[in-house]
């Protein structure tokens, strides 16, 4: 992608990252969740997309567990791209970079709750074996999706166990 760099976010990026969210999600307040995720020192990959010095996109991957299992899986979210820089491939680039980095940490299975029309472009398919950490509305059943990097491995099954910032039922309901 011309002129766009992706790197892990630094503590000094926090203000710019938090400023993106009300622009991309005018009807949803995600800043407390994002701030809490950025405070998690272990188990979170936070990537920014930069146009020059400007933060124009952000994504978080959280390293999670499966109940009664030693399997690790990741939760993707949130993801946002500044409205002035959307439809240039930044969102998809952040997704694939994060999946590759999670894979390098040994986490090959990544789940997301999001629009299947969008995440399907990055290979996500409806997830049936892993259940969400909090209940989701039935109409969102196909919005709970996953992608697996590892080939031929048996798929993880069970309830996803998440760190505190994700244990908020309002994040999982409409
Ligand atoms: C969704 C979002 C991250 C996409 O970022 P982006 O950098 O514009 O995405 P990409 O350039 O990789 O892909 C753009 C393509 O996806 C499409 N797209 C974007 N949102 C979509 C959606 N919800 N459903 C289907 N397609 C979607 C665009 O129309 C575009 O397709 P086109 O180029 O064929 O017209 C960005 O629009 C955004 O931040 N939106 C507001 C917040 C949000 O909804 N975040 C997702 C949380 S689950």
Description:
The radius of gyration is 15 Å and the shape is globular. The mean pLDDT is 95. Helix 1 runs antiparallel to helix 2 (31-39). Strands 1, 2, 3, 4, 5, 6, 7, 8 and 9 form a nine-stranded mixed β-sheet that branches. The chain is 22% helix and 31% strand. The chain has 174 residues and is α+β, with helices and mostly antiparallel strands. It has one domain: Aminopeptidase (3-Layer(aba) Sandwich). It is built from four helices and nine strands, in the order βααβββαβαββββ. The structure holds coenzyme A (COA). Residues 24-25, 78-81, 86-92, 114-115, 117-118 line the site of coenzyme A (COA). Coenzyme A binds next to strand 4, helix 3 and helix 4.
- Architecture in CATH? 3-Layer(aba) Sandwich
**Model regions low in confidence, pLDDT < 50 over at least 5 residues:** none
Order of helices and strands: EHHEEEHEHEEEE
Mean pLDDT: 95
User: What small molecules accompany the polymer chains?
Assistant: coenzyme A
What is the CATH C level class, in words? Alpha Beta
What is the helix content? Answer: 10-25%
Q: Work out the radius of gyration.
A: 15 Å
CATH fold-level label: Aminopeptidase
Overall outline: globular
Which percent band covers the strand fraction?
Answer: 25-35%
**CATH H level, superfamily name:** Gcn5-related N-acetyltransferase (GNAT)
How is the biggest beta sheet arranged? 9 strands, mixed
Number of domains: 1
Query: How many DSSP-defined strands?
Result: 9
Distance, first to last CA: 34 Å
């Amino acid at each position: 992608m011309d002129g766009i760099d992706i790197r892990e976010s630094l503590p000094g990026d926090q203000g710019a990252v938090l400023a993106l969210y009300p622009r991309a999600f005018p009807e949803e307040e995600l800043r407390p969740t994002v701030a809490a995720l950025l405070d998690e020192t272990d188990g979170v990959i936070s990537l920014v997309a930069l146009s020059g010095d400007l933060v124009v996109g952000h994504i978080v991957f959280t390293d999670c567990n499966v109940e009664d299992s030693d399997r690790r899986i990741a939760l993707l979210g949130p993801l946002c791209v500044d409205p002035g820089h959307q439809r240039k491939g930044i969102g998809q680039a952040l997704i694939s970079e994060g999946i590759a980095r999670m894979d390098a940490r040994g986490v090959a299975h990544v789940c997301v709750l999001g629009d299947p029309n969008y995440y399907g472009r990055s290979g996500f398919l409806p997830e049936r074996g892993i259940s969400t950490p909090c209940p989701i509305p039935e109409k969102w059943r196909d919005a709970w999706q996953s992608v697996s990097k590892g080939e031929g491995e048996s798929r993880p099954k069970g309830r996803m166990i998440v760190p505190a910032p994700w244990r908020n039922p309002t994040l999982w309901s409409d």
